[in-house]
Every structure is written in C-alpha cells, then in structure tokens.
C-alpha cells in the first residue's frame, strides 16, 4: 500500500496540504481500478458472447456457400454433358442416316 | 469590514476539491491512454496511438499519423459494450457491430490492458479494495 494517503489539513481554514492530493489520488486510483475491472469483465463477456453467437452462423453460411458452389459446378458438368451428347447425336445422326 | 460567509467558504473548498479531482482524473486517463497505446507497439515520430477505458462500458482507440503530404491525420474509434456484443462508431461513420476479427483483437487488447496498464498503475490498491 502506498504511503500517499498521509494527508493532513492545516489549522487554517480552506488551506489544503499536498498530502490531500495524495489522499485524493488514492481514492481515485481505487475507484478507477474497480471501474476498469468491471469494464474488462463486461467487455470480455460481451465479446465472448458475440464470438460464440456468430461463429456457428458463419459455419452455416460457409456450408451454404459451399453447397451452392458444388451445385453450380454440378449443373455446369450436367449442362456440358448434355451439350456433348447433343453434339454427338447431331454428328452421328446424319452419318447414320447416310449409311442407311 | 468584510464578513466571512461560511457557506461561501464551503463552496470554495468544494469547488477546489472538484477541480483537483477532475485534474487528477484527466491525468490518470492520459497516462492510461499512453500506456494503452503502447500495447500495439511503440510510438514513432510519424504515428501515435492511444487506447483507454473511458468508463465501465466504453473503450476508445485514437490514432494519429503523418501522411505523405506531412499532414497529421487522426481517427478516433469508440467501442460501446452492449449485452449482445460490441458496437463501434468512428468519426462521421455510422454505428455498427464490430466484425469477428475485430472482436477477437479487441478481446486480446482488453486483457492486455488489464494486465499491463491497470495492474501496474492501480494494482497496489487491490488489497484495500478487497478489504473494502
């Protein structure tokens, strides 16, 4: 504990010794320490809550995006396969007709 | 003959005490802000940072830097703590919830503030605080 709180008041009314600054400093320091501890606890709780609340949502969103991308890729593959079949059919059909 | 009014004397003393408290409080905040800014690295001649706890639900980040044209620029970010998370407001921008990355960084900064700013400055009051 600091020795700054050795405050004294002189007999003269309204005059404060330097010791009073020390006492005032100790009171302010103590109050400030309590306020910071409260602020740290409150903020930590709120931030933990925010982080745990948004993380699952983000995972779901990431999964949705992945599914969308996969579906889009799959659709592209299907469309490409269909086009290929069409091209093949168009190419082979006339030849087949000619052969016939 | 001038008469001393006890009420005026008391008022004068109270005002003096209030002024002293305000000055001390400002001085403590300034010191905290300086130490808080150093949590993110040392200040340089072209960049200064300040970070401090304004009250039990508000944190402030202030940054000043010298731009290419050698003009000082500054940005102040105010973080408001709510039950569901932390919201921020910057000069001339809207009020919005911080991103997860910013939330994680702020969480770390606040833990460091408690350890490296509050403890060294006021840790000595802990015993008397716990004792009541």
Write the layout of secondary structure elements.
The complex is a heterodimer of chains A (100) and B (132).
Chain A: H1 19-99
Chain B: H1 6-37, E1 47-55, E2 58-66, E3 72-82, E4 85-90, E5 96-97, H2 100-122, H3 126-131
Describe this structure in words.
The complex is a heterodimer of chains A (100) and B (132). Chain A has 100 residues and is mostly helical. Chain A has one helix at 19-99. The model of chain A is unreliable at 1-16 (pLDDT under 50). Chain B is α+β, with helices and mostly antiparallel strands and 132 residues long. Chain B contains 3 helices and 5 strands, in the order αβββββαα. A 5-stranded antiparallel β-sheet of chain B has the order 1-2-3-4-5. In chain B, a hairpin with a 5-residue loop joins strand 4 and strand 5. The longest helix of chain B has 32 residues, at 6-37. The relative contact order of chain B is 0.10. Chain A binds chain B through residues 1-2, 13-14, 16, 20-21, 24-26, 28-30, 32-40, 42-44, 46-51, 53-55, 58, and chain B through 9, 12-13, 16-17, 20-21, 24-25, 28, 53, 55-59, 79, 81-86, 97-98, 100, 103-104, 106-107, 110-111, 113-114, 117-118, 121-129.
Count of distinct strands of chain A: 0
In total, the number of strands of chain B is 5
What is the chain-wise order of helices and strands of chain B?
A: HEEEEEHH
Mean pLDDT of chain B: 88
Q: What is the overall shape of chain A?
A: rod-shaped
Relative helix content of chain B: 40-55%
Order of helices and strands of chain A: H
Low-confidence stretches of chain B: none
Average of the residue pLDDT scores of chain A: 69
Most residues in contact, chain pair and counts = A-B, 35 and 45 residues
Global outline of chain B: extended
Index terms:
A: 100 residues, B: 132 residues, alpha+beta, five-stranded antiparallel beta sheet, 5 strands
């Amino acid at each position: 504990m600091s020795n700054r709180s050795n405050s004294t008041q002189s007999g003269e009314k309204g005059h404060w010794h330097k010791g009073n600054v020390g006492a005032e400093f100790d009171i302010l320091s103590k109050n400030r320490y309590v306020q910071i501890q409260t602020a740290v606890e409150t903020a930590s709780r709120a931030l933990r809550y925010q982080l745990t609340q948004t993380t699952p949502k983000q995972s779901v969103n990431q999964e949705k995006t992945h599914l969308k991308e996969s579906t889009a890729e799959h659709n592209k593959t299907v469309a490409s396969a269909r086009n290929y079949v069409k091209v093949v059919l168009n190419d082979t059909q006339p030849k087949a007709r000619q052969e016939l | 003959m001038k008469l001393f009014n006890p009420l005026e004397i008391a008022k004068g003393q109270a005002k003096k005490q209030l002024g002293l408290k305000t000055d001390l409080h400002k001085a403590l905040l300034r010191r905290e802000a300086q130490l808080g800014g150093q949590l993110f690295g040392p200040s340089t001649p072209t960049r200064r940072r300040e970070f401090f706890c304004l009250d039990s639900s508000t944190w402030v980040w202030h940054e000043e830097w010298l731009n290419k044209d050698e003009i000082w620029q500054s940005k102040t970010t105010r973080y408001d703590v709510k039950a569901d998370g932390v919201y921020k407001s910057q000069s001339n921008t809207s009020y919005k919830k911080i991103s997860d990355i910013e939330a994680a960084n702020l969480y770390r900064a606040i833990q460091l503030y408690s350890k490296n700013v509050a403890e060294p400055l006021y840790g000595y009051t802990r015993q008397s605080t716990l004792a009541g």
